[in-house]
Write a structure and sequence with these properties.
homodimer, alpha/beta, Rossmann fold, seven-stranded parallel β-sheet, 40% helix, globular, Epimerase_deHydtase (chains A, B), NADP (chains A, B)
Chain lengths: 325, 325
């Protein structure tokens, strides 16, 4: 079993690598080789008996993706991408990385003619307001950001390339991953994690939108579970609609804060400072709220069932079970 | 008023040119110049007082689209495309013309920084089975052909480029255009017209699918009406969802044949020969049936209201009102 991960230096990529290192297997087979790609060098894990190769550079550059698939990885996790805030700020970069890079990778796989499993991380940003109360699996994607547009185009390619037999693709629309560990990134969704992560570490956090904003979340641990499950799923059970909205916890920001109070007390909640930001609001107001995610649940994808659980996963996985007091 | 038409040598392109020549105006303004583009030289109409320029070549070739928009056309009708059967048979050609060509044109307009109206002909091929009985405007596009995938990606770009203010785009999802005049083309949908057109001219026609197949049609005259209406519509009334499913007549093949009998008699119907074709069936079975088309009707788009009317439009526009007897 040979595994390729693009975007391997990102948060989800690093957690996926750690999980693969721990499991030692994927799809029930021993992992023999890991190819890791990112624009910056991903950290090479030391895993006994596994050949690890590090690749860096621009996926859209001539020849880059051909080199990545030359070793014919059995499973390709395509996580690479410019995040929403950056794709909105830099039009050319977003299209180059998120669309051209994805297409270049898919075309390299097509031309290698060996039909591996490709798992592509799409996003609920493919959806755009207005929405029904709960968004069904059959609801049309009408993105309101360039990032969402690029992800939608990647989904369309994935479905067509799968239909044509070039590879066996599964697109997973990730909800917002929360609580993101570490420093904030440029994603407009950063505050959803910040208002939990910072107070749990005794730091002040900025809330740039109203508490009434409803959004769907899953933990980084769930994101990795989605990826592993998508790698192992029997493609013939999925049918031609290859892009699946993942399950998650749909809550308002107010409910997030109530969960924080239940898990970590009122002192943590007191560290949240409301500073409205019109730029973030302009992006967030077009984002989806709650999802049915019926198909993905039927296909065996699972996530947390409450925001309290999402906070506890963060405390377990990132804080050694400890909360600042 | 300067107008650019890509795909100007195609059936819809030629009819649009004839209509513009007859009207002499678009959006209430006198047409001063017509730029016509296609891969083969479109026929130059002679219109008094209108400068007509003919452009030929591959839209995706370097510099081609920059040259087309250098004269800053006020309205761009982007009709160019490889049809469904051909895009399915020739993967590279389909993506090059339908995706890369469209993106190149949109990017040339973006870089010219003057935000014209762009009317893009998409297709109901963006939808893929299974469907509800009547497909609502909010139903998700899940194409089952490469052609439909390419059109969906064009729609996504159109919406994002419009949102960004690069141009003011309207995407119109054409139903199957019926009755197509002239010879059959490579579209898998060709028989929908053939079974009407050939008998009306005293010729035999092949029906390659079951009479129970339901599909939505509009006449070439309606297609031109959609384009003219889309050019004139106030973009601010459309909102961010720029791609509209056009109205049409949803009927079974059996109902088409009944209409033919009502309009032209049983002798015409006797010229239809049923010869099932699995290749055509494999494509057609994934196609949509009936549409709600609520938004487009509310925005003032109109089509025929019966298949009898579609046949009569063909007899008026193509046969000088005469049917072979």
């Amino acid at each position: 079993m040979r595994v390729l991960i693009t975007g391997a230096a990102g948060m989800v990529g690093r957690k996926l690598i750690a999980r693969l290192a721990k499991d030692g297997t994927l799809r029930g087979q021993k992992i023999a080789a890991l190819d890791l790609h990112d624009i910056v060098p991903p950290q090479a894990p030391v895993i006994e008996g596994v050949d690890v190769a590090i690749h860096t550079g621009d996926l859209a550059a001539a020849g880059a993706t051909e080199r990545l698939v030359a070793s014919r990885p059995d499973v390709i996790f395509h996580l690479a991408g410019v995040v929403s805030g950056e794709a909105e700020a830099n039009f050319d970069l977003g299209y180059r990385v998120n669309l051209d890079g994805t297409r270049a990778l898919f075309d390299a796989v097509r031309l290698a003619s060996y039909a591996p499993r490709v798992v592509f991380t799409s996003s609920i940003a493919v959806f755009g307001a207005p929405f029904p109360d709960v968004i069904p699996d059959e609801f049309h994607p009408t993105p309101l950001t360039s990032y969402g547009t690029q992800k939608l185009m990647g989904e369309a390619l994935l479905a067509d390339y799968t239909r044509r037999g070039f590879f066996d693709g599964i697109g997973i629309r990730l909800p917002t991953i929360c609580v993101r560990p570490g420093k904030p990134n440029k994603a407009a969704s950063g505050f959803f994690s910040g208002i939990i992560r910072e107070p749990l570490s005794g730091q002040e956090a900025i809330l740039p939108v109203s508490r009434s904003v409803v959004h769907t979340h899953a933990s980084p641990r769930s994101a990795v579970n989605f990826l592993i499950h998508a790698a192992g799923i029997d493609g013939s059970t999925v049918g031609p609609r290859r892009n699946l909205t993942m399950p998650g916890v749909g809550v308002s920001v107010g409910q997030q804060i109530e969960a924080l109070e239940r898990v970590a007390g009122s002192r943590a909640v007191g560290l949240i400072r409301e500073v409205p930001d019109d730029t973030i609001w302009a992006i967030v107001k077009g984002w989806p709220t709650r999802f049915e995610a019926r198909r993905s649940r039927e296909l065996g994808f699972t996530a947390e069932t409450s925001f309290d659980e999402i906070i506890r996963v963060h405390i377990e996985d990132e804080l050694d079970g400890k909360v600042a007091s």
